[in-house]
Amino acid sequence: MTEIGFNGMWLPQDQDPRMGDTPSRGERAVLVEYLEHYRATLELKCEGLTPAQLGTRSVPPSRMSLLGMVRHFARVEQSWFRRIIEGQHDLERHFQEEDGGFELGEATQELVDASFALLREEVAHSREVLERTDLDTIVDVHGDQVEVRDVVVHMIEEYARHCGHADLLRECLDGRTGQ
After folding, report:
1. Which of 23-27, 70-74, 84-88 has the lowest mean pLDDT?
2. Which DSSP state fits 84?
3. Of 134, 137, 124, residue with least CA distance to 28
């Protein structure tokens, strides 16, 4: 394992791309900032790893890996923003037959590249959807009528939970811990 500096932090605070110059103001800005923070955190946790490391599974029987999380979030972004907010309920979900994206074969560079490309494509689309959608908009979530703000809060929660898992996975791989 490599020794990490910066008092155990991932990056020096002044080099952390997630840190803004000023705090956000207003509900929408705060929610978007938190969501973007966690999206960036997932990518940071995967930086500098080989395909084999990205595909390394956590403690058995779990199939969780960092690459699986990238694929899972491509599915999550697609599901909540395309299927729920845009109402494309019949759209086939990414990795429907593959345990939500966590089940993968050999982690090749091609799979890594395709997985990150898909995640980035879905995130870009999600950003566009959120930008043009009012937080008060009511959407159907499995028969329940909820506001888009609830979906955004759920996305923050989903990323935060899995970024905690990513911290542990990354620490097992090379000793790096999160901030």
Report:
1. 23-27
2. I
3. 134
Q: What is the pTM of this model?
A: 0.85
Instruction: Report residue 94 as tokens.
Output: 């990414």
104 contacts 71 by C-beta, under 8 angstroms: yes
Q: What is the mean pLDDT of residues 85-104?
A: 85
Taking 60 as the threshold, does the pLDDT of residue 17 lie above it? no
User: What residue ranges in the chain does DSSP mark as E strands?
Assistant: 138-141, 144-147
pLDDT (mean) for 130-148: 96
Query: Identity (one letter) of the amino acid at 61?
Result: P
- β partners of residue 30: none
Which residue type occupies 55?
G
Q: Across-strand partners of 139?
A: 146
Contact between 72 and 98 (Cβ < 8 Å): no
DSSP for 45-109 reads HHTT--HHHHT---STT----HHHHHHHHHHHHIIIIIIIIS--TTSPPTTTTTGGGT--SS--H
Cβ atoms within 10 A of the Cβ of 90, count?
6
Q: What is the pLDDT of residue 83?
A: 96
Query: What average pLDDT does the segment 161-179 reach?
Result: 85
Q: Is 61 exposed, middle or buried (CB count within 10 Å of its CB: 0-12, 13-18, 19+)? A: exposed
First CA to last CA distance, the chain: 18
The letter for the amino acid at 150 is: D
Phi, psi of 67, rounded to the nearest 5 degrees = -65, -40
